[in-house]
């Protein structure tokens, strides 16, 4: 774990966060590292001020530009799967959004690369995460379906927006035995899947039904 200033921030919400953790346990999240990091991380800083009081509810919330911060269960589940499937050190997140998932990831792996196509969201998340004190997250404004080839290969890739099929560039950028975790399918019929590099090919494993915003092409101002 890297040193940062999370501990002192937002302690007023400690009890609310404890309730969120209890609910996550009830929903089946069992990884203590993930639970402890989500307990410590002030999620209310990652939503608009007007919604701060709802930040710990079990729901996705709007963050502007038609996008949402994923609900706590989704963040916890993806983080838990990430740790369950291997011992990743360098990972790529596609869809920085609010920056909350990146904040959780940065406390459970060594280095996080995160990419976002929406300029305002990308700038906002970068400033927030830097202000909090994270030093192990690198940011890039790009269409994430192209990945981040200069920094590849990655031990794992977390895709936080849904594609119909796994983008070929992302699969290319997985290291040997690397894996991609993310939603695949149509808007009303998505599955959270793990796609793992195995020899010359890939093996796909379906985890559970999911509901994410779609992966969109190109950049947006
Ligand atoms: N991980 C985010 C979840 C954000 S929702 C969080 O913790 O808040 C998904 C995000 O993916 C949105 O911000 C959306 O703008 C972004 N996105 C959609 N298509 C993308 C693409 N092709 N490349 C990069 N980001 C994309």
Which features would summarize this protein structure in a list?
single chain; 221 residues; alpha/beta; seven-stranded mixed beta sheet; 9 strands; disordered N terminus; binds S-adenosyl-L-homocysteine
User: In terms of per-residue confidence, which ranges show pLDDT below 50 for 5 or more consecutive residues?
Assistant: 1-5, 7-11
Bound molecules: S-adenosyl-L-homocysteine
Helix content: 25-40%
Percent of residues in β-strands: 25-35%
Radius of gyration: 16 Å
SSE order, one letter for each helix or strand: HHEEHEHEHEEHEEE
Derived from helix and strand composition plus strand pairing, the structural class reads alpha/beta
Describe this structure in words.
The chain has about 220 residues and is an alpha/beta fold. About 25% of the residues lie in helices and about 30% in strands. It contains six helices and nine strands; from the N terminus they run ααββαβαβαββαβββ. It has helices at about 15-25, 30-40, 70-85, 100-105, 120-130, 170; strands spanning about 60-65, 65-70, 90-95, 110-115, 135-140, 155-160, 175-185, 190-200, 200-210. The strands form two sheets. A seven-stranded mixed sheet has the order 5-4-3-6-7-8-9. Strands 1-2 form a two-stranded antiparallel sheet. Strand 1 and strand 2 form a beta hairpin. It is globular and about 50 Å long. The N and C termini lie far apart (about 35 Å). Bound molecules: S-adenosyl-L-homocysteine. S-adenosyl-L-homocysteine binds near residues 68, 160 and 216.
